[in-house]
UniProtKB/TrEMBL annotation:
This is Sulfotransferase. It comes from the Eukaryota. 3'-phosphoadenylyl sulfate binds at residues 322, 421. InterPro entries: NST/OST, P-loop_NTPase. It comes from Micractinium conductrix. Residues 91-100 have a biased composition (Low complexity). Keywords: Transferase. One of its GO terms (molecular function) is sulfotransferase activity. Residues 77-114, 139-160 are annotated as: Disordered. It holds the Pfam family Sulfotransfer_3. The active site is at 225 (for sulfotransferase activity).
Length: 498
């Protein structure tokens, strides 16, 4: 005999009463379909789970066990409810229509049995079809509900997500439609739960249907000044990607104060809605990939990588890297423009050199920043791209397609041109950045060690041609030495960035 569970936090409302009535009717119809003697391996065992979204309470009723016991639990729960109103009546009619369809297919099945034509195998097949039909109806209903999120939130006249009524799977896989509906339903309701992040984490146990993405699907985490804004817009325009609210929310660092796991529930909901465009993705049945881009995340890997992986273990991580001296210069200039002049930027003639030298050990030391991410995320969930590849030359189209292939979206869309966003000193500092040749050689020596560490990681992950990666940067250094520097050691260079 099976176990019996009943939780009824809110069965006194008319909505609850209606759903229970519907469930009992469906249960009765289901019992009419069962053969008179239950075949081996198909015990007289049913499971009913009702989500009674009445007034936003998220009440759930579950009953599992012998059919008669489950029916008794549902009857008792119904007795506690009150009568439904007009809007509930319309929903009852929809439920009754579904019931009628189940009854009709049951009658067809009985006829076949009488004719001796229905073998046990056919019977199982028909049950699968019935479950498929019921799931399709549920899917339509869930889509309707997703189109009315404000109503659900307000609670007034809230539609019910009513029933997952099924016999436990008899060794057969769920249909694609069933998986899609169940996955979309599971993820959608997370927004309304007391702990949205904890709920979203549990989608790891729910299989998405064809074309669906777990939510969120990926993040562009850095590095600063590596064309992440262009990449963000390029990806946002893809039809299989949900356009996020804005770039650089720095949610986990700023709002959650470095503790993603303890982030306030209200903040979580705001983040889902305002940044990740959760509701828009829900309306598209999660057939679009949700993402955000915050370039400081990559530098916070020591605490953030583990926390993000705990929260969203399926998450994919995209990282762009630029020739380190150019990246450091662009970042320093960006900070100066925003009145954040670094203390290293003091000496009149050699100011940029000293700052870059420091940054190459920290913010522009890519391998150092990447190690925690690679410790917590499997290689197949991380994708490293080279800025010089995605922004120009022959590597551009394959590199952009590679990102989309990694994300599991159509690789050729929207197109293979990155676009140019967020450019600063490329326009304003065409003459280059002043330092001596000896100083530049000093920076190159440090950047080269950085490049070799990065190449080792690229080789390990197989994201690109690791040797080609180093060659791209070597080419940039050599070009500056040849074209922008006087030949003497103390000669002046006007360094151009990539
Ligand atoms: N398509 C294309 N081709 C060449 N260069 C490009 C392109 N898109 C962006 N960029 C350059 O990338 C720099 C901005 O990077 P980010 O958007 O990541 O900056 S930020 O950290 O988000 O502020 C910024 O570099 P700087 O101009 O050196 O500052 C942009 O000019």
């Amino acid at each position: 005999m099976g176990s019996l569970v009943s939780r009824r936090p809110d069965t006194r409302s008319s909505a609850a009463a209606l759903v229970l009535t519907a469930a009992i009717l469906l249960l009765a119809a289901y019992s009419a379909l069962r053969p008179s003697s239950t075949p081996p391996g198909m015990p007289n065992h049913v499971r009913v789970q009702l989500q009674l979204d009445t007034g936003g309470s998220g009440a759930v009723l579950e009953a599992e066990g012998e059919q008669e016991q489950v029916q008794a639990v549902l009857e008792a729960a119904r007795a506690e409810g009150s009568e439904g109103d007009a809007s509930m009546l319309r929903q009852q009619q929809a439920v009754e229509q579904q019931l009628q369809e189940v009854e009709e297919s049951g009658a067809r099945q009985q006829q076949q049995q009488q004719q001796g034509a229905a073998t046990q195998q056919q019977e199982v097949k028909q049950q699968q079809q019935q479950q498929g039909a019921a799931t399709q109806q549920q899917e339509v209903k869930q889509q309707q509900q997703q189109q009315e999120p404000s109503k659900q939130q307000a609670g007034a006249g809230a539609p019910q997500r009513w029933a997952v009524l099924s016999k436990p799977p008899v060794g057969q896989a769920k249909s694609a439609a069933q998986r899609s509906a169940e996955f979309a339903h599971f993820v959608s309701q997370c927004y309304y739960t007391a702990d949205p992040f904890a709920c979203l984490s549990r989608q790891a146990d729910v299989e998405p249907g064809p074309g669906q993405f777990r939510f969120p699907h990926f993040m562009v985490v850095g590095f600063q000044k590596c064309a992440t804004t262009s990449l963000f817009h390029h990806l946002s325009g893809h039809p299989q990607i949900q356009n996020p609210g804005n770039k650089e929310p720095e949610f986990y660092t700023r709002t959650c104060a470095y503790n993603a796991m303890r982030c306030m529930k209200m903040d979580q909901r705001d983040y889902l809605r305002e940044i990740l465009s959760f509701k828009e993705a829900g309306k598209k049945n999660f057939t679009v990939a949700g993402f955000e881009g915050s370039t400081h995340y990559v530098l916070e890997g020591r605490w953030l990588a583990a926390q993000l992986h705990d929260l969203f273990p399926w998450l994919k991580i995209v990282v762009s890297m630029r020739e380190p001296i150019s990246q450091a210069i662009a970042m320093i200039f960006h900070n100066i423009e925003h009145n954040r002049t670094p203390p290293c930027y003091t000496e009149n003639n050699n100011k940029i050199y000293k700052c870059v030298l420091e940054d190459l050990d920290y913010e522009s030391n890519y391998a150092r920043a990447m190690r925690p991410w690679l410790k917590h995320f499997p290689l197949e969930q991380v994708h490293m791209v080279q800025y010089e590849n995605i922004t120009s030359g022959e590597g551009m189209a394959p590199a952009l397609r590679g990102i989309k292939r990694f994300l599991g979206i159509k690789p050729a869309l929207p197109d293979d041109d990155l676009g140019l966003y967020n450019f600063r000193h490329q326009r304003k500092h065409k003459q280059g950045w002043r330092m001596t040749r000896a100083q530049y050689l000093d920076l190159v020596a440090k950047a080269r060690r950085n490049a070799q560490d990065v190449a080792a990681l690229v080789r390990q992950g197989g994201w690109a041609d690791a040797d080609g990666w180093v060659e791209n940067w070597e080419k940039a250094w050599q070009q500056n030495l040849d074209e922008s520097c006087e030949p003497e050691q103390d000669g002046i260079c006007m360094i151009k960035v990539t």
